[in-house]
Amino acid sequence: MERIALVGAGLIGQAWAIVFGRAGHEVMLYDAEPGALKRAREAIAARLADLAAFGLVEGPQAVLGRIGYATGLAEALDGAGYVQESAPESVEVKRELYGELDRVAAPDAILASSTSGIPASSFTEHIAGRQRCLVAHPINPPFVTPLVELCPAPWTDPAVVDRAHALMTRAGQAPIRLNKEVQGFVANRMQAALIGAALRMVEDGVASAADVDVAIKAGIGLRWSFMGPLETIDLNAPGGIADYLRRYGPLYQAIEREQGPLGWTADALLRKLDEARRAVLPSGELPGRSAWRDRRLMALAAQKRQAAETIGE
Amino acid sequence: MERIALVGAGLIGQAWAIVFGRAGHEVMLYDAEPGALKRAREAIAARLADLAAFGLVEGPQAVLGRIGYATGLAEALDGAGYVQESAPESVEVKRELYGELDRVAAPDAILASSTSGIPASSFTEHIAGRQRCLVAHPINPPFVTPLVELCPAPWTDPAVVDRAHALMTRAGQAPIRLNKEVQGFVANRMQAALIGAALRMVEDGVASAADVDVAIKAGIGLRWSFMGPLETIDLNAPGGIADYLRRYGPLYQAIEREQGPLGWTADALLRKLDEARRAVLPSGELPGRSAWRDRRLMALAAQKRQAAETIGE
C-alpha cells in the first residue's frame, strides 16, 4: 500500500489524513507553518472520535497510529508514492511548491492538488515532472463526502489519472474523471447553475430564501443524495431520459429564457440574502451550525451505507 | 379535521390519499375513469405496507379505513373542506373540471390542483369561485417527499393560501409559498438549471453521464438532502452567504458565461444520453429501478426523521 504524503495541514489536509489513515495507508502530514501540526493532531483525534460514534471508522486509535507528522518536506515525501497538496489557493504559492515537490518526491510519485479552482496547467507547466501532476479536488469534508474530482492538465499522463482513480477507489472515495480543464470542475458547475436559479427567485420575489431552501431539502434534494440528476430524470418518464427531455426540454428551455441576467455580487442582493439568513442564524452561530452539518453528514453517510447494503445500490 | 376530496385516482391521487389518510383526515377518492378506483385501492394498500415496514406510517389498516371511494363527483365532494385535483395535465380538461368543481363543492372549500406545469390563472379565470383556487404541486411521491409548492393565481384570496399552508403543515408536508406564477414553480426551476449544466458537460465531453451523476450523489447532493442550497453556501464562508458570494460570485459568473447555448432536445444529445443510460439500465428495468428509488426514499425519510430528533434540525 502506497505511503501517502500530505502537504498542508489545514482543514483539508487533516481530512485527507483521516481518509487515507482509515483506509490503511501510512500517512505523513507536513505544514510549513509552525504550530499547524499540533493543531492538526488535536483536530484529527476529535474528528476520529466523532466518526467512530457514527460507525464510520473502525479502530480510531490504529488510524491515529498510522498518521505521522513531518518536520520537513523531505521527511514527509520520503518513500511516498502519492502526494496530496492542500496549500493555500494561490497560483504563485503552488507554482513554487510544485517545483520543489518535483525535485524532492520519488520519481514515480503522483503529485495531486486539492485546489477547488486552479487548473493544474497553471502551476505545473514549468516543471520537469509535469506529466505526474493533476488536480484531485475533494468536497469538504472528504471522510463523509466521498466525491473526488480528478482533473488532469493537458500534459498529464493518462496512466497517472488511472493510478489516482484506483487509489481513491480503494480508499473508499468516489473519484470521477474530467477530460478537460473547465472552471469549477464538475460539481461546482452544477452547484453554480442551481444557486444562480435560487438567487434569481429570491431577487425577483418569487419565493423567500427560506422557502427556496425547503424546495430542495424537502423536495428534489432528497433523491440527489443517493442518485444523480441524470438517473433521476431517466426514471421520471416511461421511456427514460430521451423521452423525458422530449417531454420537458421545451419547459426547461422556456425557464432558461425567462431567467434574466443575475448580478451575482450586487450589494442589494447580498444585503437581502444576508438579512434573510441572519434572521434564521446569527453570525456567531455559523461555526456551531457547521458542526451540526457535519454530524448530519456523518449520520447520512452511515444510513447511505446501510441502505446500499439492505436495499441495493 | 377537514374532510378531503381527491379528484383523479392515478399515481398522484393515490399518493395524496396516503398523505391525508395518514394524517387522520377522512378522504374520498374519485376518478371519472371506470376501473381507476379498483386499481387505486390495491396500489394504496401495497404502498401502505411498504411505508409501515419503514416505520413511516402507524396503523396502516386505520389509514385504509379512512379512505373512501366515491362513484360520482357529488358524492366525493360532499362535506369536503379541501379538494385536491390530480386530473390529466390539460388546460382544457382542467378548465371544464374547475367549472364543475366550483358548482358542486361546498362554498368555502379550497380547490387545489396538483399540476406540475399549468398556472392556476389559465384554468380558473372564468369561474365564480376563482378566489378559492390555487396550485398545490407535490413532488412524487409526496408521502416521502414532503415539499408542496403553493402557487396562487393573481385572484387567489391570500387567506386561501394560508389555509392550504396550515393544512399541509398539519399533514406533515413541507409547504412553500410562491408570490407569483412562474414556469416550473420553484423546485423545477432549480432542477432545470442544474440539469442544463449537467447536459452541457456531457455534450462537451467534460465528463461522462455516469460521472456527472456521481458528482451529485457522492458530493454536493448529500447535504442538499437535509439543508438547502442557500444554507449550504451560508456555511461555506466564514462571514456567511454575502461573504461567500463576494468570494465565489465572480467564479460562478465566469462559469455562466462559459456555458454555451444548449440544444435541449437535439437528436445527437438525446442519443448520447440514451446510450449512456441504457448501458447501465436497460429499458425493461426502468420500473424496477423506480421501485428501488422509492424504497431508498422511504429509508432516507426514516433516517432524516431520526437524525432530526437526535442531532437536531
Notes on the structure:
The structure is a homodimer of 313-residue chains. In chain A, a hairpin with an 8-residue loop joins strand 6 (133-138) and strand 7 (147-152). The model of chain A has no long low-confidence stretch (mean pLDDT 95). The first copy, chain A, has 13 helices and eight strands. In chain A, helix 1 (11-22) packs across helix 2 (36-53). Chain A has helices spanning 11-22, 36-53, 60-66, 73-77, 91-104, 121-124, 158-170, 187-203, 209-224, 229-234, 241-258, 267-280, 286-310, and strands spanning 3-7, 27-30, 67-69, 80-85, 110-113, 133-138, 147-152, 174-177. Chain A has two domains: 3-177, Rossmann fold; 187-280, Orthogonal Bundle (N-(1-d-carboxylethyl)-l-norvaline Dehydrogenase, domain 2).
**Number of DSSP E strands of chain A:** 8
Query: Residue-averaged pLDDT of chain A, rounded?
Result: 95
Radius of gyration of chain A: 21 Å
First-residue to last-residue Cα separation of chain A: 28 Å
How many domain units of chain A? 2
Question: What would the principal axes of the Cα set say about the shape of chain A?
Answer: globular
Name of the CATH class of the largest domain in chain A: Alpha Beta
Q: Might you state the CATH topology name of the largest domain in chain A?
A: Rossmann fold
- Roughly what percent helix of chain A? 40-55%
Question: Structural class from helices and strands of chain A?
Answer: alpha/beta
CATH level-4 homologous superfamily of the largest domain in chain A: NAD(P)-binding Rossmann-like Domain
CATH architecture of the largest domain in chain A: 3-Layer(aba) Sandwich
The major beta sheet of chain A can be summarized as: 8 strands, mixed
Number of helices of chain A: 13
What order do the strands of the largest sheet of chain A run in, or round the barrel if closed?
3-2-1-4-5-6-7-8
